[in-house]
Design brief:
With 156 residues, the protein is α+β, with helices and mostly antiparallel strands. The chain contains four helices and nine strands, in the order αββββαβαββββα. The termini are close together. It binds flavin mononucleotide (FMN).
Length: 156
């Protein structure tokens, strides 16, 4: 088993769509590297490669939203995870509304956490963006969050 698959298998991660809005530009990307990093205040982090279009929208707007998916929406995770919003409007075919501070919330999300950017930290080829939760909601009670399995996206 290669190291990346081993990390994914033995350090469980979820599958999320991280969204942001900068003026009239909206976008979202699939992210597995999401974590809580502080209790008071409640801070969440996402490790994002600096070349992601979503990172550009987050640094401009200072807000992002972590949309939680259930496994039945693996199609959305693939839709948001393999194409960049620099070339296509990923929301053209996806139903959404807006959270309190303007970030898109997917209609199929089971819950979301909208965050205000409070810090960034370089980590190798990624940047850890840290946000304080400013809006949050459970949209579909009782649904289990999607746990990242390597083979669901990258084969055996
Ligand atoms: C299962 C899965 C998990 C991913 N997790 C992350 C992640 O945690 N951080 C990251 O920067 N990119 C991650 N990606 C890659 C981005 O989702 C992908 O590069 C996306 O096309 C970026 O879109 P954007 O340029 O519109 O922001 C993941 C992709 C997949 C399929």
């Amino acid at each position: 088993m290669n190291l990346q698959k081993m990390v994914t298998t033995y350090i469980p991660q979820g599958i999320f769509i991280v969204t942001s809005r900068d003026g009239n530009k909206i976008n979202g990307m699939t992210a597995a590297w999401v974590s809580q990093v502080s209790f008071k205040p409640t801070l969440l982090s996402v490790s994002i490669a600096p070349q992601r279009y979503t990172y550009e929208l987050i640094t401009n707007s200072k807000y992002f939203c972590i949309n939680v998916l259930s496994k039945e929406h693996i199609d959305l995770a693939k839709h948001f995870g393999f194409k960049t919003g620099r070339q296509i409007n990923k929301f053209e075919t996806v139903a959404y509304k807006f959270a309190a501070n303007g970030c898109p919330v997917l209609e199929d999300a089971i819950a979301y956490f909208e965050c205000k950017l409070v810090g960034e930290c370089e980590a190798g080829d990624h940047i850890i963006v840290i946000g304080e939760v400013v809006d949050h909601k459970i949209l579909k009670e009782g649904k289990e969050p999607f746990i990242f399995k390597w083979e669901d996206f990258f084969g055996g």
